[in-house]
Amino acid sequence: MEQNLLSDLEEKIKSQGKSLGFDLVRITTAEPFYRDESEALKRIRDGHMDGLSWYTEDRVRKMNRPGLLLDGARSIISVGVSYLEQNIESEKMLSGKVSRYARGTDYHSVLKLRLKKFRDVVSDILGENVNTRIFVDDGPMNDKGAARRSGLGWMGKNTNILTPTYGSWIFLGQLILDVALKPDKPLKKTCGNCTICIDDCPTGAIVAPYVVDNSLCISYLTIELKGSIPIHLRPLMGDWIFGCDICQDVCPVNKKAEMGKLPEFKQRPGFSTPNLVEILNLDQETFSKVYKDSPIKRAKLAGLKRNACVALGNNGDVAAVKPLSKVLFDSSAVFRGHAAWALGRLGGPESEKHLRKALADEGDPDIRGEIQSALDGLRDLA
Ligand code: SF4
Ligand code: SF4
Predict the structure, then answer these.
(1) Which of 61, 65, 73, 282 could crosslink 32 through cysteines, CB 3.0-4.6 Å?
(2) How far is 90 from 245, CA to CA, in rounded Å?
(3) Which pLDDT value is given to residue 48?
């Protein structure tokens, strides 16, 4: 009888969560994630998290011990929301690509708002004073560990959580509580023998099943990395200017994923395949206005412009030569260097003319080096 009452409670919580817009609602305990902790520490020591200065050993310990995040933590409610949308834009001349998750409103604010409402509903259902803490990819919390252990999904070899209904196109959120709830069981699914994502990653960033070397991943290079992108990786980045979906696009689990329902994640016009020349010409005021509540703001204007240069170089469309040539005289050294690289990759007499003029004017020795190697590359093509 007591067990039935308990299950009723959990079922009520889940059904209320779904009516608040969460596609998946599962429960796990607040036990530490010891195995995840030791694997994450190993990733740091192996250098696979290099470049993410905030991802420290201290943080790893905290994120894997929910009791350090909330006094008396007993349960974690793990939620998932699909952001999959029918593509509304086809690729155009001089366009780049933005990862699917960043084509609508910033998921942090959308999920947080709904999780706050959910917290109030859960407190009402439990009928007691409940202490809680909410996470949406914004603090030290092992979100994937909670999703896996609660049976919301399983860990894919590309390090994304895969769900049976929505594939890996989901945002995750967590509500930690100091009340014991009946936990769900993990799924028994795995990737099996599949290695498609590992084989198809253009930069070889999935260095082993379940291990992504951050410094090689296009997502890191286009969003987190500040400054110059390593030259040997630029040709492998294709036309991605914010994130990369390749290891998800090729995943067989995602082929039958259901579409998301939340209106906040509807693609905004111009966000999935933005015009790269318009990005080269963006000023700070327009950038801040256009991307105010979009995940894209994380790349900052300088990062987005730098990425647009790389994508224009890789697109191979000589219509980009003129707009890129103007960038050779921009005040940002990083921007000038990437424009030079792109012109070297596009080649042709016009590119050469602009690069020679820029070399004569350039005062920064690093950028002179970039321009010179772009010119050397042109000679190699001749
Ligand atoms: Fe590779 Fe792109 Fe996946 Fe990163 S996001 S692991 S670069 S396929
Ligand atoms: Fe797993 Fe294959 Fe999907 Fe990679 S592509 S995450 S190995 S199912």
Answers:
(1) 65
(2) 16
(3) 84
